[in-house]
């Protein structure tokens, strides 16, 4: 409750003017609600009852009554309209503000923070939590108006008749207390239902994302069971909420009605003793009737508060997350020459504590300007993490990464991106046009965009797209294949003419033929940049001047491809895997064919072929070693 | 099935028909509905207690110069008892309503979820993932809000208007006419207001979708955004989407704000009319004072239904839209349907596959597979090669019946795939897609997904057979290592290893690998390939690969080019056909590997 009020306080401070206007409108509404009861009472007392008792009515009194009734209604309507529009405005403004701020945090916080938080959670922080946090703002001004209404009503009742006012003073606090009990009982149940709703949504998200796996393994039933269990928990939680609502809502409705009846009972006695007029009785009874509905606005605000508190706390956790990436002030050299990259003693581990194994351990190597270095290592050896360190997506726990001799941490924001372009393993395209995805807002001419696409071997399919560069890709861009998406990502990188280009297995989904065209294109034009390439394929490695061989997060060896091939067993094993297999197979089939040929008597074509094959195999072995 | 429809929203159906159809899908809701409605009527009747009590008090209790306090007390007590009774009815009604709606909506949710999985990949891909999720979450929630509040309000409001009107007629037909004359124009105008609102709300929903998409980019694309220093640009896009959403919301709220108070003004008109006309009627002795005052109270019974009518209609609008979207899923026929009990159950054992004149095109797109005819004998090892866009993956999707051919047919052991039961098909033919999607859980959970009944020993054995035991041992917690959401704690290559182990554990008779090891290092890949070769001996194995070493090891290579099967045969044979597509592919591979 107190927490809830604090959340509301945040909103009120942020939107003082709107809130004040909304409350003023609502106060007008509250005052005029009492005013309309008074007008009715006046009309009953001065127009209706005299007419029945005297058998005549004056036109003046009649029209005064009508004027009072209409005037109160008009003012009340203005109050209602203002209250509703302004309350909505305040709520939407706060939601929008939270969403902007949360997203800004997402963009500001380091990638390491993102690694620790599941995607689904971050998305719901910005959507449903931001919404829940400010949901009570919609009924809030009305609740304030209701308080005004209650105070006005109290004054009006006391002025009319203290005895009738006493009934009101019993009934209205009772409603307030009932509301409070209601809210206390409801709050934990509503929170649980909200939690379950999020879990149901998460299961659906994950399951639909993995639809292909579910389908290909025929696990629809299993998934449905998993979803059903959570959906049924949600159902039970909602029913529990319903029980409480079902109990309290009719009570909250019955109380004011009982109040009116009490007013009639007490009023009859007061009339008998001559303390009040019948008009007073009608006025108070009417007041009770008019108040019975709006008074529940207090309950609406209170009912939304627990959800609001939970939502706001989640939003605030994001807003208060620290660990921002600090930037330095050392200006990078103004040059378009290829960059020099150096790492010394770099270590990194995911998570903290003794459990966290270092993924990258004491890695040191350098890339001279204009040179190409291949990072080679088995699956899970830490290459992608190392790449993230090289472009400062994460900061090393130990050691330094230097670009042109400057620690990346000393460079100002944007300086790394200006010089270095990374093509990550996982392709990401924005929900934007092809052009937008490549320029990302930089002013790059269409001519240069096409040149980049050409280099990435993507010009062909882009030209065939219905709207060319203006074709929308991204979330709806499911029509692009993995290889096509990868090539767009590559074009994005080369379009910036980076001084250092980093390719993290960036052509894995591309055909070898296309890949080789890309790589040759890069070699021809990449003279202007240094290149770090994570690769398995010999074709890619062959383009490198130097190879760094990693295993389990450590640099095992570095040197030229030939040097490593000669002295590093692990490296040789890795890069010649295909060739060795091929050679073995060739030898095997040569043997088989030889045997077959011998059996078939006489040297023939098969024999000659086998000999050729063996020769080829030998030549290939040499080729690798050369 | 050339015509793959997207998931519609059943827009052609009217609101009433949508609700009727929605209700027909939720038997739990209809059961006991009559009783619940009867209780709702009792609860509603409580609303006229006050006007009756007022009338009785004024006309009978206060008739004489000295009020009859005893009579008024008796009347008040009687009415109080009635109020308690109606509140009780309200409680029972609410509990029944919540139980019925929540049970029926849980069923609807689960049905929708299952149906999404039953839809073909093609149909699923016509929607954003988030939109599909909405259909079993937010959309259902909207229906539930409506059923528990809005729908109830419609019934309560109509009941309230009816009860009030009957009582009014009993008191004075002239004043009843007057009241109706005042409110009728408003009632007639309500559907128009609803249309304005519905337009405004549609735009709110659209802008909300855009906003969520923009926000999700900042999370999903976190790495790329940082690498390209695109934070400001992304923030601007998010701000724009958030503001557009806010503007749409504000516009809708403004319409509500103007429409809502109209009722107050109309009610004031009615009350003024009652006073003016009532006094005149009273003077001619046609109405008593108590009845006239009771009318003032009865008019308030008109106010709340009409005032909430806009809100109720908003909710009804949302619910109908939600219902349309949920029904849109349920009514989208699975274009690749399970023949179910009518289908053939394939016996276990080596599998043969035949493509007979198979033709495929994506809806509205050019043909991607043309006249493909091929027989894959049991126990054979087949490699499928070709450039990007040559139709390899389409071939794989047709073979696993993720899609159906536009013409021609695919048979397994002589049975048309369309006639094979899914349970049998999925058990015998398993594909490992390129993207190793993992579920949030441990390594073991994910591998067991291939065969839920597998024991830990069987899983360990499978990893050993695949030569992955060392890799598992190297992980911090071995098989108990959590993989994170979508497997994000593992590298792309590691995810592929798990996906492969998962499929291997499923123990299919035909294993289809769609570049399933593209992100794995060569040494591991070769080791895996050998292990697979050993353990799948005697089964049919088909690999789509861009590493031609796979092709060299295959019994037969299928070469695709421009959607056609252009060559087939063993590697040795194909490589000799010097002007063939395969020879060119091979040459470029060799040059890439040796350069």
TrEMBL record, chain A:
A single MF term (Gene Ontology): ABC-type transporter activity
TM region(s), chain numbering: 55-75, 137-157, 163-182
Pfam family, one: ABC_membrane
Residue span(s) of domain ABC transmembrane type-1: 22-307
Bilayer topology term: Multi-pass membrane protein
Domain (ABC transporter): residue spans on this chain: 341-577
Alphabetical UniProt keywords: ATP-binding, Cell inner membrane, Cell membrane, Membrane, Nucleotide-binding, Transmembrane, Transmembrane helix, Transport
GO cellular component terms, semicolon-separated: plasma membrane
Primary localization: membrane
InterPro entries for this protein: AAA+_ATPase (IPR003593), ABC1_TM_dom (IPR011527), ABC1_TM_sf (IPR036640), ABC_transporter-like_ATP-bd (IPR003439), ABC_transporter-like_CS (IPR017871), P-loop_NTPase (IPR027417), Type_1_exporter (IPR039421)
Family membership: Belongs to the ABC transporter superfamily. Siderophore-Fe(3+) uptake transporter (SIUT) (TC 3.A.1.21) family.
Protein name: ABC transporter ATP-binding protein
Species of origin: Nonomuraea montanisoli
TrEMBL record, chain B:
Keyword vocabulary terms for this entry: ATP-binding, Cell inner membrane, Cell membrane, Membrane, Nucleotide-binding, Transmembrane, Transmembrane helix, Transport
Matching Pfam families: ABC_membrane, ABC_tran
SMART domains referenced in this protein's UniProt entry, alphabetically: AAA
Domain of life (superkingdom): Bacteria
ABC transmembrane type-1 domain: residues covered: 34-318
Molecular function terms from GO: ABC-type oligopeptide transporter activity; ATP binding; ATP hydrolysis activity
Cellular compartments per GO CC: plasma membrane
Entry keyword annotation includes Plastid: no
Every ABC transporter domain range: 353-587
Topology class, membrane: Multi-pass membrane protein
Tagged with keyword Transmembrane helix: yes
Cell compartments where the protein resides: Cell membrane
PANTHER family: ATP-BINDING CASSETTE SUB-FAMILY B MEMBER 10, MITOCHONDRIAL (PTHR43394:SF1), ATP-DEPENDENT PERMEASE MDL1, MITOCHONDRIAL (PTHR43394)
Protein name: ABC transporter ATP-binding protein
């Amino acid at each position: 409750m107190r927490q809830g009020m604090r959340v509301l306080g945040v909103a009120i401070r942020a939107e003082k003017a709107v809130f004040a206007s909304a409350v003023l409108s609502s106060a007008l509404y509250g005052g005029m609600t009492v005013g309309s009861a008074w007008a009715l009472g006046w009309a009953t007392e001065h127009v209706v009852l005299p007419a029945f008792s005297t058998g005549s009515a004056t036109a003046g009194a009649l029209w005064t009554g009508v004027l009072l009734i209409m005037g109160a209604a008009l003012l009340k309507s203005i109050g209602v309209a203002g209250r509703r529009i302004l309350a909505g405005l305040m709520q939407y403004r706060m939601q929008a503000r939270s969403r902007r701020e949360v997203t800004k945090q997402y963009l500001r916080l380091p990638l390491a923070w993102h690694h620790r938080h599941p995607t689904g959670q971050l998305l719901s922080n910005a959507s449903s939590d931001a919404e829940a946090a400010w949901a009570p703002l919609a009924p809030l001004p009305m609740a304030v108006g209701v308080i005004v209404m209650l105070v006005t009503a109290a004054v009006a009742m006391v002025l009319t008749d203290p005895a009738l006012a006493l009934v009101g003073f019993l009934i209205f606090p009772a409603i307030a207390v009932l509301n409070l009990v209601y809210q206390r009982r409801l709050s934990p149940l509503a929170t649980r239902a909200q939690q379950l709703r999020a879990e149901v949504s998460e299961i659906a998200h994950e399951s639909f994302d993995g639809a292909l796996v579910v389908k290909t393994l025929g696990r629809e039933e299993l998934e449905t069971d998993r979803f059903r269990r959570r959906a049924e928990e949600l159902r039970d939680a909602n029913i529990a909420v319903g029980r409480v609502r079902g109990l309290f809502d009719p009570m909250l409705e019955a109380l004011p009605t009982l109040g009116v009846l009490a007013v009639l009972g007490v009023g009859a006695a007061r009339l008998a003793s001559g303390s009040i007029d019948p008009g007073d009785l009608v006025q108070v009874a009417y007041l009770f009737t008019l108040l019975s509905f709006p008074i529940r606005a207090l309950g609406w605000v209170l009912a939304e508060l627990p959800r609001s508190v939970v939502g706001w706390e989640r939003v605030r956790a994001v807003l208060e997350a620290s660990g921002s990436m600090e930037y330095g002030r050392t200006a990078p050299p103004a040059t378009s020459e290829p960059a020099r990259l150096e790492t010394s003693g770099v270590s990194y581990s995911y998570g903290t504590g003794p459990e966290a194994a270092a993924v990258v351990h004491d890695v040191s190597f350098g890339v001279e300007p204009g040179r190409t270095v291949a990072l080679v290592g088995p699956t899970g050896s830490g290459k992608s993490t190392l790449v993230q360190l090289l472009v400062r997506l994460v900061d090393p726990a130990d050691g330094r990464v230097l670009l042109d001799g400057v620690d990346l941490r000393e460079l100002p924001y944007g300086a790394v991106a200006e010089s270095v372009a990374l093509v990550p393993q996982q392709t990401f395209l924005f929900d934007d046009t092809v052009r937008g995805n490549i320029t990302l807002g930089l002013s790059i001419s269409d001519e240069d965009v096409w040149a980049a696409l050409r280099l990435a071997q993507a010009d062909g399919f882009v030209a065939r797209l219905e709207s060319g560069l203006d074709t929308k890709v991204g979330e709806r861009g499911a029509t692009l294949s993995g290889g096509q998406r990868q090539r767009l990502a590559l074009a994005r990188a080369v379009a910036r003419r980076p001084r250092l280009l980093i390719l993290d297995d960036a052509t894995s989904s591309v055909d070898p033929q296309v890949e080789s065209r890309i790589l040759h294109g890069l070699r021809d034009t990449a003279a202007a940049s240094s290149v770090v390439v994570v690769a398995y394929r010999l074709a890619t490695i062959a383009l490198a001047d130097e190879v760094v061989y990693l295993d389990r997060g450590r640099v095992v060896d570095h040197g030229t491809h030939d040097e490593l091939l000669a002295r590093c067993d692990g490296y040789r094993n890795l890069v010649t895997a295909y060739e060795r297999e091929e050679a073995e197979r060739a030898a095997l089939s040569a043997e088989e064919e030889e045997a077959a040929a011998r059996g078939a008597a006489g040297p023939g074509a098969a024999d000659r072929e086998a000999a050729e094959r063996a020769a080829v195999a030998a030549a290939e072995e040499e080729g690798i070693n050369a | 099935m050339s015509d793959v429809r997207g998931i519609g929203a059943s827009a052609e159906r009217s609101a009433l028909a949508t609700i009727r159809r929605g209700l027909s899908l939720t038997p739990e809701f209809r059961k006991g509905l009559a009783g619940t409605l009867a209780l709702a009527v009792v609860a509603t009747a409580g609303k006229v207690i006050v006007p009756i009590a007022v009338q009785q008090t004024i006309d009978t209790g206060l008739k004489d110069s000295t009020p009859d306090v005893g009579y008024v007390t008796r009347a008040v007590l009687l009415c109080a008892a009635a109020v308690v009774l109606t509140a009780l009815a309200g409680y029972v009604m609410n509990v029944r309503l919540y139980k019925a709606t929540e049970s029926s909506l849980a069923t609807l949710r689960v049905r929708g979820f299952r149906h999404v999985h039953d839809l073909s990949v093609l149909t699923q891909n016509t929607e954003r993932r988030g939109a599909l999720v909405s259909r079993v979450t937010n959309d259902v929630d909207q229906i539930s809000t409506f059923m528990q509040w809005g729908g109830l309000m419609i019934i309560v409001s109509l009941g309230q208007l009816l009860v009030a009107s009957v009582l009014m007629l009993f008191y004075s037909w002239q004043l009843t006419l007057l009241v109706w004359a005042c409110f009728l124009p408003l009632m007639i105008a309500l559907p128009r207001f609803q249309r304005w609102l519905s337009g405004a709300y549609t735009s709110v929903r659209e802008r909300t979708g855009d906003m969520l998409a923009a926000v999700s980019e900042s999370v999903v694309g976190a790495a790329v955004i940082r690498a390209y220093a695109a934070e400001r640009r992304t923030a601007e896009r998010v701000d724009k989407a958030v503001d557009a959403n806010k503007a749409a919301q504000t516009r809708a709220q403004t319409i509500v704000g103007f429409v809502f108070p109209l009722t107050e003004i109309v009610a004031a008109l009615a009350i003024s009319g009652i006073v003016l006309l009532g006094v005149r009627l009273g003077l001619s002795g046609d109405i008593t004072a108590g009845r006239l005052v009771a009318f003032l109270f009865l008019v308030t019974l008109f106010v709340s239904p009409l005032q909430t009518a806009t809100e109720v209609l908003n909710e009804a609008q949302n619910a109908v839209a939600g219902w349309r979207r949920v029904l849109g899923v349920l009514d989208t026929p699975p274009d690749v349907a399970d023949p179910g009990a009518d289908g053939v159950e394939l016996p276990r054992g080596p599998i043969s596959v035949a493509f007979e004149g198979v033709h495929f095109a994506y809806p509205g797109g050019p043909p991607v597979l043309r006249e493909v005819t091929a027989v894959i004998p049991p126990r054979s090892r087949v490699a499928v090669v070709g450039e990007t866009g040559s139709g390899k993956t389409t071939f794989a999707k047709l073979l696993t019946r993720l899609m159906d051919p536009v013409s021609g047919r695919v048979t397994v052991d002589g049975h048309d795939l369309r006639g094979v039961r899914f349970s049998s098909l999925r058990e015998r033919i398993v594909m490992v897609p390129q993207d190793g999607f993992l579920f949030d859980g441990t390594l073991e959970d994910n591998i067991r997904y291939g065969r839920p009944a597998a024991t830990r020993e069987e899983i360990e054995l499978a990893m050993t057979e695949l030569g992955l035991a060392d890799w598992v041992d190297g992980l911090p917690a071995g098989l108990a290592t959590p993989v994170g959401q979508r497997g994000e704690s593992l590298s792309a290559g590691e995810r592929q290893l798990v996906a492969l182990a998962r499929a291997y554990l499923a123990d299919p008779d035909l294993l289809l690998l769609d570049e399933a090891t593209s992100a794995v290092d060569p040494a591991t890949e070769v080791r895996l390939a050998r292990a697979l070769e050993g353990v799948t001996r005697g089964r049919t194995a088909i690999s789509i690969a861009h590493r031609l070493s796979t092709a060299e090891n295959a019994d037969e290579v299928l070469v695709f080019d421009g959607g056609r099967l252009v060559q087939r045969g063993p590697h040795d044979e194909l490589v000799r056909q010097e002007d063939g597509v395969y020879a060119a592919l091979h040459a470029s591979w060799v040059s890439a590997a040796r350069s």
